[in-house]
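Researcher: Let's do a round of design. I'm pasting the structure tokens now; please hold your answer until I've finished.
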């Protein structure tokens, strides 16, 4: 997935996307970027990536039958890891990550406090 790449590459893609929207709408260079997206009723690349992660988690939690079988055990729930029943037993299990590469993976972004917010 393209959005798991480093920010250097994503910044280039996002800049090109913003320029394209500006040209298509015949707006000046300093026109607010958010307004460009609003006019075309679309979302920025980071927002689209967050949306896709949230959609994947929602399907995993509530509609597993909609996902390919490879994702049936992609995430792990706290209740399957810990023996005690707690308020967070239905949450996704958060694994400890030390490397930046690991922090960009879908499992880490989607679990616990790392889950994207709009």
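Researcher: That's everything. Go ahead.
Model: Designed sequence:
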């Amino acid at each position: 997935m393209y959005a798991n790449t480093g920010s250097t590459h994503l910044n280039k893609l996002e800049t090109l996307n913003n320029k394209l929207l500006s040209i298509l709408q015949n707006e000046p260079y300093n026109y607010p970027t958010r307004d460009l997206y609003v006019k075309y009723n679309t979302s920025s690349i980071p927002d689209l990536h967050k949306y896709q992660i949230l959609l994947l988690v929602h399907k995993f939690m509530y509609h597993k039958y909609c996902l390919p079988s490879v994702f049936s055990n992609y995430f792990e729930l706290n209740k399957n890891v810990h023996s005690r029943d707690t308020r967070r037993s239905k949450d996704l299990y958060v694994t400890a990550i030390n490397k930046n590469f690991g922090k960009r993976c879908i499992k880490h972004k989607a679990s616990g406090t790392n889950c994207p917010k709009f």
